[in-house]
Amino acid sequence: MSELNHPILQESFEIIDREIGQHSLSLQEYAIARRVIHATADFDFLDLLKFSPEVIEIALDSLSGQTPIITDVTMVQQGIKTLVTKTFNNPLISAVDQIEISLPGKTRTETGILQCYQQYPRGIYVIGNAPTALLALCSQIEYNSRIPALIIGAPVGFVKVIEAKEALTMTKVPYILVQGRKGGSPVASAIVNALLILAAEKWL
Questions:
Q1: Which residues of 178-203 are buried (b: 16+ CB within 10 A; e: fewer)?
Q2: Coil/strand/helix, residue 176
Q3: Is 72's pLDDT higher than 90?
Q4: What is the mean pLDDT of residues 38-55?
Q5: Per-domain boundaries in the chain
Q6: Whether the predicted pLDDT of 47 surpasses 60
Q7: In angstroms, how far is CA 31 from the centroid of its own chain?
Q8: DSSP for residue 100
Q9: Residue 49, beta-bridge partner list
Q10: DSSP 2
Q11: What residues are labeled active site?
Q12: Using an 8 Å Cβ cutoff, are 75 and 126 in contact?
C-alpha cells in the first residue's frame, strides 16, 4: 500500500538508497533498516539491526492477525498509532500506563511489562526505551511455556542495555534487535511502522 508512504518520505528513501548503494540485507530487512535510518539520520543502523530466522514473516502474520502490540512507553505507542489505525487496528497498549505504583525494586515500566505479559503472553512486545523492562520480560519468558509472537528490542542507553539485548538473543522468541547501545523510541517505532507497511502490502 504505497499510499501509506508520504511523497517526502519517498524522496528521503531515494536519498538513503543512493548513499547506501549495495548492501547485504534482504529486501524486507532493508525496508526496515531504511525506515530506521530515515527516523534517525544514522546510517549505522544498516549494520546494527539483527533479525532472528523467519521473524519478518512471523511479524507480518501476527500484525495482520490483529495480535495485540504492547509497547514499553507511551512515546512508542504514539509513534505507531497512526499506521496501526490505518492498517490492521491491532489493540495497542502502553505498559507504563497500565499501572500507577511499581512493584518493590522495579520501575513502573518493568511492572507494566510484567503485568501485560500476564494479560497478553502471546502479544507483540516493542521495547524502545527501558532495558530493565526487556530484562524483566526475558526473565519471565524463561520460565513460561507461553511466549510472545515476537519482541522488538531497541532500548537505548548505557546501564543494562547490552545485557538486556543479549538476554533477548538467548530466548526462544523471534526477535528484531538493535545491537549495541543505540536504539530509542523513534527506532522502535520505525521498525514497527516498516513492518506494518510490509504487512499491508502483503495482505491489504
A1: bbeebbbbbbbbbbbbbbbbbbbeee
A2: strand
A3: yes
A4: 97
A5: 47-203
A6: yes
A7: 14
A8: S
A9: 178
A10: G
A11: 38
A12: no
The confidence score (pLDDT) of residue 49 equals 98
Return d(Cα 61, Cα 55) in angstroms, integer.
10
Query: Is residue 4 over pLDDT 70?
Result: no
Q: Which of 118, 109, 120 is nearest to 164 (CA)?
A: 109
Q: Residue 48 is placed in which grid cell?
A: 546494527
* Fold of the domain built from segment(s) 47-203: Rossmann fold (3.40.50)
Report residue 16 as a C-alpha cell. Answer: 538513503
Q: What is the pLDDT of residues 114-141, one digit of tens each?
A: 999 999 999 999 999 999 999 999 999 9
Alpha-carbon distances, residue 97 vs 74, 77, 112 (angstroms): 7, 11, 7
- Closest listed residue to residue 126, CA positions, set 173, 52, 176: 176
Nearest to 125 by CA among 155, 152, 164: 152
Contacts 24+ apart (CB under 8 A), 114-120: 114/140, 116/70, 117/141, 117/144, 117/148, 120/68, 120/70, 120/93
Looking at residue 203, what is its pLDDT?
Answer: 93
Strand partners, 51: 176
Measured between alpha carbons, how far is 41 from 148 in angstroms, rounded to an integer?
Answer: 30
Cα angle value 200/28/131 (rounded, 5°): 95
Name 139's Cβ contacts closer than 8 Å, sequence gap at least 6.
Answer: 167
| DSSP 8-state symbol, 102 | P
Set of cell numbers at residue 123: 502479544
Extract the C-alpha cell encoding 183.
536504539
Residues 185-194 have a mean pLDDT of 98
**Joined grid coordinates for residue 101:** 505504583
